[in-house]
User: What shape does this take?
Amino acid sequence: MNTVITISREFGSGGRELGRRLAEKLDVAYYDQEIISEISKHTELSEQYVSQITEKRPYIPFPITVGRSLSAWYNNIDLQTSVQIFSIQKQIIEEMAQKSDCVIVGRCADYILRDYRPIRIFVYGSLKSKIMRCKNNAPEQEHLSDKDLVREINRIDKNRAEYYHFYTDQEWGDKVNYDICVNTTYMSIKDISESFIKLKTK
Amino acid sequence: MNTVITISREFGSGGRELGRRLAEKLDVAYYDQEIISEISKHTELSEQYVSQITEKRPYIPFPITVGRSLSAWYNNIDLQTSVQIFSIQKQIIEEMAQKSDCVIVGRCADYILRDYRPIRIFVYGSLKSKIMRCKNNAPEQEHLSDKDLVREINRIDKNRAEYYHFYTDQEWGDKVNYDICVNTTYMSIKDISESFIKLKTK
Assistant: This one.
């Protein structure tokens, strides 16, 4: 069976960098944006739309009573589309795991591949360290305030947590769902990656 | 500054073995029972008593109203003794960290040494894996049932959590308080220790 490392990560914690470094050092495939591109090819939906839908829990349309009238409330993300995309995503991720050793970032890969027993890593950090990393990695023209960044970090992580919970019925970031949780506040991603190349599951 | 690794661990998760292996591989001092012996020497209290008191939150004596009468309720573990022992323990742990590179197991060392920026490891595992490890490591004459083991694991971990919370005001096992949390359910302690020798804090 191939060695698969899955990376789940808080926004700004450096999870993507860790994944990339691990894949480089181990000389294995790295899948992140590639999953979106593959889904986009399969569905003919734009990468932007797929990207948005795969990080946001779908809202289930249900009738609610407003005053005395019964009205139906629908969110702009359609449940059926989201579930269909998840099913394609599952198939693509399984194919990736079957093809070769690899590192997969995000998209519930830890859960989808649970029977393959991947090394499931969760990357997190203090808010301060995540703000700092976001600022360091920001495009030159982007000048978000700390307040804006905190709002953005919280918004993205809330979406990730809800999306993960919706499809896995597990808590995103709860250590019981991972083999290793690593805090990037006081450790460099480079050092962590050098250490983690030695990990393996039984 | 010396490199200090602190290990907090769920009972039966193999944290002690991980600590011992790390210390051996890194060729550094290993402190676990040694802390108890030192406290015992300083206080002239028996090692058994010290051991018991350093894994159990002290109960604060307080007056409670029973029916219409006011009575005082005291637990057998005296608050003052426990706080005094903690203070000695703190001093001993700080001396150990100042002396040389080391691995320290338990006893709030992660919190006591927070200004030294140790590598703070938390070791955990599934209940099933912990029961299995307890059985494998049990003395030959001990034959506890699974039910008894679950009760024992829960009792010890509850005490550890309460003791830690009492002296640190932090949640025991909450990943924000550690640099690495490692799940020993699907990874061998040997492999984990080989990987972790590379870790360092900034």
